[in-house]
Amino acid sequence: MGLISVKGKPYETRKFVDSLRSHAGYEPVVNLPTATPNVTAFIPSDKSHEYPSPSHTFENITFLNIAKYHVLGHEILVSSMTGNVSVTQPLLNDTDMRLVIQTNSSYQQGAGNGVNTSDITYKNMVARNGYLNVIDSLLIPPLQPEIVICQAHESPVFVHLANRHPNIIDLLNNSKNFTLLCPSDTALRRVGLIGMSNETITNLILSHMVRGVYYSTDFTEQAEGKHMTVTNLLNTTISISVKGSSILANNTATIEQHNILFNNGVMHLINKVLDNTVT
Fold first, then answer.
1. What distance in Å separates the CA atoms of residue 176 and residue 173, rounded to the nearest whole number?
2. 4, 156, 183, 276: least CB-packed within 10 angstroms?
3. What's the pTM?
4. Strand 39-44 relative to strand 130-135: parallel, antiparallel, unpaired?
5. In sequence order, what DSSP letters do the residues of 190-208 get, joined into one string?
């Protein structure tokens, strides 16, 4: 029980802790520290809802895996993070899902999937085998692109375009390891979508899908002080550069919201349609 054993104040996490203890199916989570002694855990406070059995599912994810999503296999001091964002990997078996830990404009730190973020209310509590952090809501692992894009702000126009082309939805849901540079609603309205052929719209979407997964931290680490190139699904290269705190694509489009996680990749919202993608 090292994962949830902390001396002193219980930090109002009884619902989550009691759920782990009351269902034998949650033993893989409770026993994680045995195999992984240095962990970082995010424990929902009692403000969160009741927790069902570990076999219960939400969007095809079992609550056992949702519980595992709250545990990292390494120690991280949240309040001592270098930079404003960290994209890290929870202890989910046989998956490549990530968790975003970030500091917002009010210097409040949170954790989540890039769409839904939980505030971290108590940080860096030392447990016998790592660190505990209390959060104000349950963390939900990354979901299918079709679901995530609908939840993201500033993307309804893109959702409408994708829904007009079911093959694009299938491509988004079934692709592996890609990055979507999704133009915001404002950006898409500027290019005059009315009257575009289906082929042009399809190519517009494909031109913003990049081969490989690139989080904002990848861009800032690789493009700081220079530029890097990535390749979209039309085999066209896109230049990525970093200027101050901004990440730019083709030197014109700025990433306005980054690290919106899919279960098969990541999305960044950009403020312009990329050059040479609309004819």
1. 8
2. 276
3. 0.89
4. parallel
5. HT--TT--HHHHHHHHHHT
- Shortest CA distance to 90 belongs to which of 132, 40, 147, 27? 40
Q: How many CB atoms lie within 10 A of CB 147?
A: 14
* Residue 59, beta-bridge partner list: none
CA 100 → CA 33, 53, 171, 185, 193, distances in Å?
22, 26, 24, 24, 33
Dihedral over Cα of 169, 170, 171, 174: its sign: positive
Token representation of residue 202: 């399809």
- Count the alpha carbons within 13 Å of 49 in the hemisphere toward its beta carbon: 5
CB 30 within 8 A of CB 122: no
Indicate the angle between helix axes 198-207 and 166-174, nearest 10 degrees: 20
pLDDT surpasses 70 at 106? no
Q: Whole-angstrom distance between the N-terminal and C-terminal Cα of the chain?
A: 60
Tell me: pLDDT of 14 over 90.
Answer: no
What distance in Å separates the CA atoms of residue 159 and residue 148, rounded to the nearest whole number? 10
Cα separation, 4 vs 70, whole angstroms: 12
CB count in 10 Å sphere of residue 164: 13
Collapsing DSSP to helix, strand or coil, 126 comes out as strand
Asked if 135 contacts 252 with a C-beta cutoff of 8 angstroms, the reply is: no
Q: What confidence tens digit (pLDDT) does each residue in 227-250 have?
A: 899 999 999 999 999 988 899 999
